[in-house]
């Protein structure tokens, strides 16, 4: 499998993200190691956000120490509500200075559903003045897709939740890609909910996790392996967040494993408390 489809998520670096992260605060050495492992194994894109507490500062310290001879590309997220062009310039400059050894080339609009006409005018102006920066939307609900395609003609990317348990967007992926939209899948591990062995996993006794666990025991494999096997079915960018350098190595080992002969449609869950990241 082509690892260039993978994007390194950084939300876990903040120490307060994920169901099985135990509020761990990453050290500089751990982050540099994760970045090095990612780069040497073909992951050259980072996904982050201003709202990830302390992550900008951590990346500014760690990126210059990466030994791999590759300049990372960075995707970040801004809130555009009431943002002026001057305000955007300030945020962009802050971000570019933070990622001094990387290339900021993607910005996702995090609060797109709250924007006014004036806010849209700012985004349009941004696309003109920053032609090398692609603008995308971060979405959660498939019901918004028609409005997005008709109204946001300048959008070329969508970031959305997609996983073995959250298959809500699967029926729409082909049409979105035919419309020239690049898909970035997030929460592919449901922030650790698929790790049925973790004592920190509050969903370990959920019926959908138990069903997944039974499949894992039958195939002698893990929830992470099943989650990766599912996401490999789709030609999308895949954002992976990890809790240690060791876990990233394990993911790379799983990526090239033979595919399981499993029909994953029956594992889709409709329980929003389980599959919607905003409710965790």
Structure description:
By secondary structure, the protein is of the alpha/beta class. It contains ten helices and eight strands. Strands 1-2-3-4-5-6-7-8 form an eight-stranded parallel β-barrel. Helix 1 (28-40) packs across helix 2 (55-62). The longest helix has 14 residues, at 85-98. The radius of gyration is 19 Å and the shape is globular. The model has no long low-confidence stretch (mean pLDDT 89).
Per DSSP, what share of the residues sits in E-state strands of 2 or more residues?
A: 5-15%
Along the chain, the helix and strand elements come as EHEHEHEHEHEHEHHEHH
| Number of separate strands | 8
- Shape type: globular
Total of DSSP H or I helical runs spanning 4+ residues: 10
Read across the widest sheet, the strand sequence of neighbours is: 1-2-3-4-5-6-7-8
Distance between the termini: 31 Å
Using the CA coordinates, give the radius of gyration: 19 Å
Classification by helices and strands: alpha/beta
Low-confidence stretches: none
Largest sheet: 8 strands, parallel, barrel
User: Which percent bin holds the helix content?
Assistant: 25-40%
Query: Residue-averaged pLDDT, rounded?
Result: 89
Write the layout of secondary structure elements.
Layout: E1 6-9, H1 28-40, E2 45-47, H2 55-62, E3 73-78, H3 85-98, E4 103-109, H4 117-129, E5 134-138, H5 145-151, E6 157-161, H6 173-178, E7 182-186, H7 207-219, H8 223-231, E8 237-240, H9 245-255, H10 272-275
